[in-house]
Amino acid sequence: MSEDDVGEISIRIEAYQYASRQKTIDSIRSAFDWLENSRRKDRFDVVRTAIEEQFLNLEGRVLGHFQEYVGGKNFIHKDQAWLLACRQREFVRECCARMAEGKDEEPTALSEAIRELPIGPDVKVIPDYSKRIV
After folding, report:
1. pTM for the model
2. CA-based Rg of the chain, rounded to a whole angstrom?
3. What is the pLDDT of residue 99?
4. What are the tens digits of pLDDT across the range 38-57?
5. Lowest mean pLDDT among 19-23, 112-116, 122-126
6. Which of 132, 133, 118 is nearest to 82 (CA)?
7. Which of 94, 120, 88 is nearest to 107 (CA)?
């Protein structure tokens, strides 16, 4: 898929279908019916968990359908993306430090200060969309 294939995105979206749309709707309705007929408060958690599972399954099916579009089966995991972002920041930091060097690539106080800037995974970058899961 390239930038020229703009129309292909809408075709892919239209091509997506639920595995079984009615089954998803029925399972959520049955969970709510069971909750309404029950007088026990702890059953609310059971129903909420059942509904969350339905949405997670739906999300998984949507992501599976568009997996080829977002990078295929070999897409980069978010932890790996975080490490790659750190490497990019190392490269940018070194470029900035070299621009601050004197004639004949002499280190200056500014270039050394730039090289000492922390850029590891603990440094917050705004916006931070890629927190590591421990």
Report:
1. 0.34
2. 25
3. 85
4. 666 666 777 777 777 776 67
5. 122-126
6. 132
7. 94
51: which 2 tokens?
A: 């509904």
CA distance 47 to 127: 35
Low-confidence winner among 23-27, 67-71, 108-112 (lowest mean pLDDT): 67-71
Contact 115, 98 (CB under 8 A): no
Contacts of 27 (CB under 8 A, 6+ apart): 50, 54
Q: List Cα–Cα distances, 14 to 7, 67, 100, 105, in angstroms.
A: 11, 15, 52, 57
Q: How far is the CA of 45 from the CAs of 36, 69, 95, in angstroms? A: 13, 36, 54
pLDDT at residue number 25: 72
Alpha helices in the chain (DSSP H): 6-15, 21-37, 43-65, 78-99, 109-115
Q: Which residues make Cβ contacts (< 8 Å) with residue 96, sequence separation at least 6?
A: 114
